[in-house]
Amino acid sequence: MSNFHSTLSRRDFMKSLGVVGAGLGTLSAAAPVFHDLDEVTSSAIGINKNPWWVKERDFKNPTVPMDWPKITRHAGTFKTLPRPTVADFTKAGVVGGTSTDLETPEMALTLYDAMAKEFPGWTPGYAGMGDTRTTALCNASKFMMMGAWPGNMEMGGKRINVQAAIMAAGGSPTFTPWLGPQLDTTTRPQDFGAPVWQGTPEENLKTCRSAIRFFGGSDVAALELDDDILKFFHSKIGGKDLVIEDVEEAYETTTKMVIPRKCKWVLMWSARQSLEGTRRQAGITENYAVWYSYSRLPKVGVQIQEFIRGLGYQALNPGMKGYLTSPLAAFSGMGEHGRMSSPTITPKYGVTNRAMWALITDLPLLPTPPIDFGAYKFCKTCGICADACPFGLIQKGDPTWENPASAKSGIQQGTFEGWRTNTADCPHCPTCQGTCPFNSKPDSFLHAVVKGTVANTPLLNSFFTNMEKAMDYGRKDPEEWWDMDDFTYGIDTSY
Length: 495
What we know:
By secondary structure, the protein is α+β, with helices and mostly antiparallel strands. The protein has helices at 10-16, 22-30, 37-42, 86-91, 105-118, 132-140, 162-168, 201-215, 227-230, 275-279, 288-311, 325-331, 375-381, 384-388, 404-407, 445-456, 461-471, and strands spanning 55-56, 152-155, 158-161, 220-224, 236-237, 240-245, 251-252, 256-260, 265-272, 315-316, 353-361, 371-372. This is Reductive dehalogenase.
């Protein structure tokens, strides 16, 4: 491959496809030209094989404007407001009492009404998640959700509280230990007098990519853990201080989790969720596509920890609640900040990524810079997700430096010019995620042209927004999913 050279520019490539209109010709001319494939592969973009219209930016300079001096480390996860009891939900007529503790009864009933209007004939079923099939699928997808050990479950004819048993043995309530599981079957080369794996930072990142995709993840990225990037890791995780010390090996006590100073890289990886499932989720709370992604993430994370340990290095897992996902994803080039604020919009999969996982390691990695494919600019004129929110919690209008409505969530104000969802009042229903225009399948030439256009000019963004609404590419009837011949895990791995 390295011996194959071509001087075909993007303009000529578009012409060869017959796309010779003045508008698109101008767009192609504006795009950077790679003179040969060596230039492509030497670019950090080549790690994840992003489409040609994705542009790299300078490090720590994503498309969303930042005010770095104002950013400070967060003390923990976002705040939530006190919620009514199950009895309060039942009294208000919410079926099943409630399947979550994140809504008020009024919000649950509002969501029922919104779903019934969007999908005539839809009913909340006995648990508020839809019919019996959907409820069963949703509940089955929650096993070890967020990496939490299950509570009471049947084992050997007895009800066993796995989480309680693990904690009684001095373990963590989640399947995401700081130091990794460190299985006795995972050997380290240095323990046997063998040298640790030695590779260039680029080779190491590609090595991690191969392992991550084998275990079930998707794209990868990396950051250097300096004082700025550390700001997006919480100062406390599970009540313990997260600190950096001059030590050789990471460790954990009852009061702190310690990062050796030599662990100066952050490995990021994404986990996709079912596109068709995402478009068809409805009900009282986030449904099966979301829950199953949350149950897969911890398993893949600890397997990556064991893989890196097997190379002879450390991999530290702060857990999904130990850092701010969206900023790290934007700084590492996984995607761009958008109106929903979370999840991050990616060039290939839109927002059908549940989360971007972060591990801290001393394995040298090639940092990947922020990218620009026009998502931030497109969100300025779109707003489909905000219009779709049954509760009006997604910030409308232009990006701002502050959003008072989100301040109650504990979200820092004045640190970036973008959008902030009011997560304290958000019931985490699945409505907004299924509406994003960037979710569209990549196998459509029309969608590829649209995305390439958006990446290079905002002139047609309003037109494309209206086209998205007219063509109805977003949410679909939940009942249709049961008749689909979908991909394994609901994920098309061809892109």
